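Design job #97: recover the sequence.
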């Protein structure tokens, strides 16, 4: 299984970015792809996750209403649309694949495969 996040960049407050996570070698059913982020001096933080089969989603409270996670299984890609960006969204964003249950879908330990991150910088 391999994952590769892309689409990061620098934007101003209130701007938008769409991250992509290319996934290979992952079965279509039974797996979820999650997004996490790591900011300097902070712990890794859960952002959002989506089930590859069925497409159910779950978000961190800090991004709910601003970020949208979606998937295109035909393209083996998961997206993270980020709107109304804030300086506190600045971080390296990672996508990861795992088989979490509902109670663990926000925890990094539930995701087995991780790709290299992509930097998102939001400036005021």
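Job complete. Output follows.
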């Amino acid at each position: 299984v391999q994952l590769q996040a892309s689409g990061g960049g620098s934007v101003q407050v209130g701007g938008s970015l769409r991250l992509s996570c290319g996934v290979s070698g992952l079965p279509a059913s039974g797996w979820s792809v999650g997004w996490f982020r790591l900011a300097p001096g902070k712990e890794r933080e859960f952002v959002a996750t989506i089930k590859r089969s069925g497409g159910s989603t779950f978000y961190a409270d800090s991004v709910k209403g601003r970020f949208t996670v979606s998937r295109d299984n035909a393209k083996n890609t998961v997206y993270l649309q980020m709107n109304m960006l804030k300086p506190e969204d600045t971080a390296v964003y990672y996508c990861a694949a795992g088989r979490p249950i509902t109670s663990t879908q926000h925890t990094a330990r539930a995701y087995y495969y991780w790709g290299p991150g992509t930097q998102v910088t939001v400036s005021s």
